[in-house]
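Changelog note: in this version the structure field was regenerated for every chain. One regenerated record is shown below for reference.
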Amino acid sequence: MNVLVVDDSEMTRMIAKKTLRSFGINDVFEAEDGQKALEIFNQQQIDVAFSDWNMPNMNGLELLQEIRKVNKEVPVIMVTTEGSKDKVTDAIQYGVNDYLVKPFTPDSLREKLGKWVGADI
């Protein structure tokens, strides 16, 4: 399984990668902004993407819109501290699958992953 982790915080990416590896998922791609993430997404077969909302160059909502132009099926889970109703509505309109609230726990990451990829993690 190929997982894309997008966050401008190196620490958040490191924690997510370490957690995913503890689940036996070793094919983890990472990007610090939406532009780099989109390049990876277009070059690799990605099974699920976890994306931060607020990032430089291209934010999570813009990345979601670009992903949906080329792939409407891959699960995209926004990882965010944002909870405003307007932002949630915008993301739903553009096809987000789910949310993971920071700071996340290994159990919450496992739950979201299992829900969208159907894996026994």
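Spot check on this record: DSSP finds five helices and five strands in the chain. Strands lie at 2-6, 27-31, 48-52, 76-80, 98-101.
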